[in-house]
Design brief:
Number of strands: 2
Main location: cytoplasm
Structural class: mainly alpha
Keywords: Cell projection, Cytoplasm, Cytoskeleton
Subcellular location: Cytoplasm, Cytoskeleton, Cilium axoneme
Radius of gyration: 54 Å
Family: Belongs to the CFAP91 family.
Number of helices: 8
Distance between the termini: 45 Å
Protein name: Cilia- and flagella-associated protein 91
């Protein structure tokens, strides 16, 4: 009634196919034994290359069956010529295999070079993007500083334009107290005022808290209910009813006390 789910697929847990033992009768050479060197994962299951190898082996065995005997001098010459021709065919076939292998390696090399070029281009593009982003950031910071300096200079010019002739003006107290953005309510530190320097004036200084005589006077003024606390002991709860039975809550408390011990 239960099911399990593993992290592996069935193909990963499958073992190699079983190869049974065999016995070769005397006087027979089965063709299947010529493929005994092929194992699972190394030639099996057979592909196009293995099929071509099997066909070449069959042709070679058929060619070996057509070789003349070595009991005659003329037959020996013919046999040597046939063997030389077969050797040249084998070398030509080997050269073709080498060329195919070189072509495959060349294709792999081309793909590797192409991949390396793509990675290099991607890295160059990333470096260019980072360089452009840094330039943009520096440009924005420079523009922000220029705008800040421009606003500062404009404020200075506006302040100078208010009193071009340099006349002395009397202080308008009413105007300062009606404007909540004036120096009276919000003084600026750039004109020499630092609010944190006079923070001690906000500290509460009381005669009743800083002196012993003040504490005695404050204590004498308090009512007796503050200095003399009266504690009433709680009345015990009745654990029995009027008929003399123990209540269920009392039994539970006794059991909990026993369990706690």
């Amino acid at each position: 009634t239960l099911g399990t789910q593993t992290d592996y697929r069935d193909g990963e847990a499958q073992t190699d196919p079983y190869s049974p033992e065999y016995v070769v009768p005397s006087g027979s050479v089965p063709e299947l034994l010529t493929l005994a060197t092929l194992t699972w994962g190394r030639g099996l299951p057979a592909g196009l290359a293995e099929v071509e190898m099997i066909e070449r082996a069959r042709e070679k065995r058929a060619w070996e069956a057509t070789l003349p005997a070595t009991d005659n001098a003329s037959q020996i010459t013919k046999r040597r010529k046939m063997m030389d021709d077969m050797e040249r065919k084998e070398w030509a076939f080997r050269e073709q295999e080498i060329e195919k292998l070189q072509e495959v390696r060349l294709e792999v090399l081309k793909k590797l070079l192409q991949r390396r070029e793509e990675n290099r281009n991607e890295l160059d593009a990333k470096c260019l993007d980072d360089h452009w982003r840094n330039h943009q950031k520096a440009k924005e910071e420079k523009i922000k500083k220029i705008q800040h300096d421009c606003a500062l200079m404009l404020r200075k010019l506006i302040a100078k334009r208010k009193n071009v002739m340099g006349k002395l003006e009397r202080r308008d107290i009413i105007k300062e107290y009606t404007d909540f953005a004036s120096q009276t309510y919000a003084p600026l530190s750039r004109i020499g005022y630092f609010p944190d320097n006079h923070s001690e004036r906000y500290v509460v200084k009381s005669f009743y808290l800083n002196t012993f005589a003040g504490l005695c006077e404050l204590e004498a003024s308090l009512p007796d209910s503050v200095t003399q606390v009266k504690i009433k002991a709680p009345k015990p709860k009745y654990t029995t009813t009027k008929t003399g039975f123990i209540k269920r809550s009392a039994r539970l408390e006794v059991e909990l006390a026993q369990v706690h011990q």
